[in-house]
Design brief:
8 strands; Rossmann fold; 349 residues; 8-stranded mixed beta sheet; alpha/beta
């Protein structure tokens, strides 16, 4: 019997093409995974190097499950306590705190997750910030009463602190503070842009994979020219930390909840929820080149600040010429003067 040889079946051109596409896809996928893993490792290594190069300038204090960073300068009473804008650390007060420390104790701290503080559990609302600040000051041994100074969302935080712990507050200086009605009364052009939240979501992933470092895009105060040049490397090292990006995102998505907390706390008190606590509200000036809709937004902003000033029988509002939202950077002397006035007048007496 003669054997019959069957020739091998060669794959058709489409099958060969599919095999090459599959190989290319696997190769690209492996390259992408390698790049992501490399970025993650580089982020971890670079963060540790930054932590060693720029350790906490102050002291880490336990507030119940995590530690917050506080920097105390000077001596005297009442102690002045600074709370920063969203996305900023205690460095936001670098032009103010040392000069205040010349005449009384000056304490600046980092909210949970920002700066050098450890992340905290739960939503990052103003109420939570006030509770943790209360625990921080107690555990750090800073004696009340305090003059609380808050900028932007920090102003809302310390106002809530005064609502809840009025006996511990000797005075308030609110630096262009956020107001719980701003999302209702300000025009849409002056509201928090929803695209900002979407950007932060992407930034959270990008920070973990080292993309923010690769693109040289630190978040928070490190991305602005408001800090003195000698502090910018320190701010950049902190601004690349994933924990800081997370903290900024968690505070931003909780902003409406913070406004609701302030409304509820204010309604629970009388017509003057701050009683006779000495209060100075500093408002940024109106830009000379502002468009008509920006001028209208500024007038509403100033009216909101006048309403805050009326919450105390000893409240006053002042517009600071030549200043933007960050008055402590544009006109630090205005903030220092307001603090000095409360200290010299024996705030709380």
């Amino acid at each position: 019997m003669t054997a019959v040889m069957i020739p091998p079946v060669r794959p058709g051109p489409w099958r060969r093409c599919f095999r090459w596409i599959k190989r290319i896809f696997i190769a690209v996928l492996l390259l992408v995974l390698t790049a992501l893993l490399s970025g993650f490792i580089c982020q971890q290594v670079a963060s540790r190097i930054g932590d060693r190069r720029f350790p906490p300038p102050g002291r880490m204090v336990d507030v119940g499950g995590h530690r917050l960073h506080i920097l105390r300068l000077g001596r005297g009473s009442p102690a002045v306590v600074f709370d920063s804008p969203m996305g900023a650390s205690h460095l936001a007060w670098s032009l103010v705190q040392p000069r205040v420390a010349a005449f009384t104790e000056a304490c600046a701290y980092d909210r949970a997750g920002s700066g050098w503080s450890e992340p905290g559990l739960g939503p990052r609302t103003s109420s939570k910030a006030a509770e943790e600040l209360h625990a921080l000051l107690k555990n750090a041994g800073v004696k009340p009463p305090y003059i609380l100074v808050g900028s932007s969302i920090g102003g809302l935080n310390v106002r809530l602190y005064a609502f809840r712990f009025p006996g511990e507050v000797a005075g308030l200086v609110l630096v262009d503070p956020a107001h719980e009605e701003q999302s209702v009364r300000l025009p849409p052009s002056a509201q928090l842009d929803p695209s900002f939240i979407r950007m932060l979501r992407l930034a959270r992933l990008g920070s973990r994979l080292g993309l923010l470092r690769l693109l040289n895009m630190p978040l928070g105060e490190a991305s602005s020219p408001l800090l003195p040049a000698e502090l910018r490397p320190m701010a950049r090292a902190a601004g690349f930390r994933s924990s800081w990006v997370d903290a900024l995102y968690r505070e931003a998505i909780a902003i409406e909840a913070s406004f609701a907390e302030a409304r509820s706390a204010r309604r629970a008190l009388n017509e003057r929820p701050l009683g006779d606590i000495p209060l100075v509200v500093l408002t940024r000036s109106e830009a000379e080149t502002a468009a008509p809709h920006e001028r209208r937004a500024w007038r509403i902003w100033r009216e909101l600040h006048l309403e805050i000033a009326r919450e105390s029988g000893r409240g006053e509002q002042e517009t600071v010429p030549g200043s933007g939202h960050f008055i402590q950077a544009d006109r630090p002397e205005a903030v220092i003067q307001a603090i000095r006035k409360l200290v010299a007048a024996g705030a709380g007496s």
